[in-house]
């Protein structure tokens, strides 16, 4: 709202296909490889009129008929991406303490181009949902970092979702505040508002479907650009009034979009600008810290498994909050009886592999011992960081549609994914065809319980113990 | 005090029977009797407008001016008394809390300072955030190193291929 002309220029660029920037496809800078999602992305980058070719926010300007083709909205200053933080060295001898702004806060020293371009130096992402949704948000963070070099990204997520960010190198602060809480405590609400205001964000992204209430929350953070999803139904009425850019998902549940749930946001963020082609969407990548690695190695040795010689089994039926399932897939946990059969197949394979059950709650210890067997190995892990580390050291992963599947693919580990239906599999693993290491077994009846155990057993047979040199490389 | 009748000349003698004559007369006396009538200036302030007058006593002595004594009374209402004592009690409590906490040896102790305490209430969370942020920075650095190593490795392979 503060800079309406600015947001006009930004939003209208969305509507333009890449063809208005002549020769842009040829000038594509060597992008981060997009091998997880080549097909769909390539089509978009090629200038096809995408979902983002719409009018800009009609709440802010009801007479907006889209961009004027002949007008140069961006002017002479705004070519190219922003520079990384143009911070002159501090002068310790200066008696006035001149130029001692904290990094990324450069009000006086910023160039005019920065203003015109709409540089984003500090961004905040309000991510709704649990572990799965937050893991899938990683490409957005990477895209932000690529599109706006030098940006500082903070995240506001629920307590469960925050744990994911120990694997993310692109984030500065991760704050706990549950945006899905319909009745937050007033103290918490105002505190979070204060925190967000104090950090003077340039852009705030929200993945919670906003009605007027959430839109106001974003608005009150005083960020320059407030960008977020709004309800596609009547609940979204008026929310756009407080946002500079809004996206409407096809359904009221964003997680129904599966792996591409943040598609609209990604397209808008990576929109071409003057001298900047459409930003390719990066694949999902997670990193593992040394500390985490040490912790998980210790846990593994106590569980009695050897590095590279075990298969991670994830997706035991449980009512624990730590089961890491997606909101878009209700039927994604398999009862232990069926896991027991799969585990038997793994351990009888003859190549020295052992199944390692990941239990989300201590109460499953006895169940596992009763149903699967006393000598089976299990490990109690609730945080996604430790799970990733475990998967990284494993020979492979057998999992239902939990975050483990995405994490395994993010670390390029062989993976057998059990889905309740073909449709869900296509939504949540759209890149499975390109990846040789990922096998999908889908139930034909639409219920995960009826899954064809023989097919799973066949898929599991292909697992090979990870050679030691390969592990040494990672 | 002597200036009060100058400002409000009539209040000085408002209790006297002839208010209308007395007022200007006083001012006049003060002006004309510059040397001799210093007593005219020594009128007391008379806060009749504020508090209710209870009694006025006039004593006559020969060859002197009349002695005029007025008595008034000022009562606090029950509510006012209650407010006063409430304020007094709250101020006392605040004072005990505030001044009592000013010198707490705990906050100067090593135990508190060495963990990062700086006297604010929020230091614990700030430190936690900074720890997390620095851990992520570390992660970024490790990743960059890995990438660089990969690239260097690739370059070396290329070079070797070129030599062969």
UniProtKB/TrEMBL annotation, chain A:
InterPro entries: PNSB1 (IPR044983). Residues 1-21 have a biased composition (Polar residues). GO terms for biological process: photosynthetic electron transport in photosystem I. Residues 36-52 have a biased composition (Low complexity). Transmembrane segments: none annotated. Residues 81-90 have a biased composition (Basic and acidic residues). GO terms for cellular component: chloroplast; NAD(P)H dehydrogenase complex (plastoquinone). This is Photosynthetic NDH subunit of subcomplex B 1, chloroplastic. It comes from Lolium multiflorum (Italian ryegrass). The lineage of its organism: Eukaryota, Viridiplantae, Streptophyta, Embryophyta, Tracheophyta.
Automatic annotation (TrEMBL), chain B:
GO terms for biological process: photosynthetic electron transport in photosystem I. InterPro entries: PNSB4. The lineage of its organism: Eukaryota, Viridiplantae, Streptophyta, Embryophyta, Tracheophyta. One of its GO terms (cellular component) is chloroplast thylakoid membrane. This is Photosynthetic NDH subcomplex B 4. It comes from Lolium multiflorum. It comes from the Eukaryota. PANTHER family: PHOTOSYNTHETIC NDH SUBUNIT OF SUBCOMPLEX B 4, CHLOROPLASTIC (PTHR36315:SF2).
């Amino acid at each position: 709202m503060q800079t309406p002309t600015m947001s006009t220029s930004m939003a209208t660029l969305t509507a333009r296909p890449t063809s208005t920037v002549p020769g842009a496809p040829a000038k594509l800078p060597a992008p981060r490889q997009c091998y997880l999602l080549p097909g769909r992305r390539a089509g978009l980058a090629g200038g096809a009129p995408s979902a983002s070719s719409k009018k800009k926010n009609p709440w802010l300007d009801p007479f907006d008929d889209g961009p004027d083709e002949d007008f140069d909205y961006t002017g002479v200053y705004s070519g190219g991406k922003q520079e990384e933080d143009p911070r002159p060295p501090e002068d310790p001898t200066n008696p006035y303490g001149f130029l001692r702004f904290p990094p990324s806060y450069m009000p006086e020293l910023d160039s005019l181009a920065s203003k015109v371009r709409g540089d984003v130096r500090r961004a905040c992402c309000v991510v709704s949902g649990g572990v799965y949704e937050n893991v899938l948000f990683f490409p957005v963070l990477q895209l932000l970092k690529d599109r706006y070099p030098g940006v500082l990204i903070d995240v506001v997520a629920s307590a469960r979702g925050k744990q994911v960010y120990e694997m993310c190198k692109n984030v500065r602060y991760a704050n706990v505040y549950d945006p899905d809480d319909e009745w937050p405590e007033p103290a918490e609400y105002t505190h979070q508002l204060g925190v967000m205001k104090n950090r003077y964000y340039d852009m705030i992204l929200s993945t919670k479907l906003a009605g007027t209430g959430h839109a106001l929350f974003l608005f009150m953070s005083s960020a320059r650009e407030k960008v977020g999803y709004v309800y596609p139904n009547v609940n979204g009425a008026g929310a756009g009034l407080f946002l500079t850019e809004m996206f409407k998902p096809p359904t009221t549940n964003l997680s129904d979009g599966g792996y591409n749930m943040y598609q609209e946001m990604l397209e808008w963020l990576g929109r071409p600008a003057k001298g900047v082609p459409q930003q390719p969407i990066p694949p999902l990548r997670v990193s593992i810290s040394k500390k985490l690695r040490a912790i998980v190695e210790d846990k593994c040795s106590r569980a009695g498994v050897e590095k590279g010689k075990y298969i991670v089994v994830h997706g035991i039926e449980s009512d624990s909050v730590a089961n890491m399932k997606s909101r878009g897939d209700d039927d994604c946990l398999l009862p232990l009886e069926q896991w027991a059969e799969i585990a038997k197949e793994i351990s009888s394979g003859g190549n020295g592999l052992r199944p390692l059950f990941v239990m989300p709650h201590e109460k499953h210890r006895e169940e596992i011992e009763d149903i699967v067997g006393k000598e089976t190995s299990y490990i109690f892990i609730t945080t996604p960081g430790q799970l990733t580390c475990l998967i990284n050291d494993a020979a492979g992963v057998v999992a239902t549609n939990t975050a483990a599947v995405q994490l395994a693919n993010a670390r390029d580990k062989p993976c057998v994914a059990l889905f309740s239906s073909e449709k869900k599999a296509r939504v949540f693993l759209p890149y499975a065809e390109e990846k040789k290491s990922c096998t999908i077994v889908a139930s034909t009846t639409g219920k995960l319980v009826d899954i064809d155990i023989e097919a799973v057993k066949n898929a599991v047979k292909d697992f090979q113990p990870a050679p030691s040199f390969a592990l040494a490389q990672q | 005090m002597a200036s009060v009748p100058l400002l409000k000349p009539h209040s000085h003698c408002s209790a006297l029977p002839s208010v209308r004559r007395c007022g200007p007369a006083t001012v006049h006396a003060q002006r004309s009797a510059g040397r001799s009538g210093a007593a005219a200036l020594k009128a007391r302030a008379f806060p009749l407008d504020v508090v209710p007058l209870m009694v006025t006593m006039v004593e006559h002595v020969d060859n002197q001016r009349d002695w005029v004594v007025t008595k008034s009374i000022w009562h606090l209402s029950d509510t006012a008394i209650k407010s006063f004592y409430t304020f007094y009690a709250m101020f006392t409590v605040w004072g005990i809390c505030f001044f009592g906490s000013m010198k707490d040896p705990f906050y100067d102790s090593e135990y508190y300072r060495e963990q990062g305490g700086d006297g604010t209430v929020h230091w614990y969370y700030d430190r936690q955030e900074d720890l997390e942020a620095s851990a992520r920075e570390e992660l970024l650095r490790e990743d960059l190193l890995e990438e660089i190593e990969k690239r260097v490795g690739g370059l070396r392979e290329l070079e070797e291929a070129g030599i062969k």
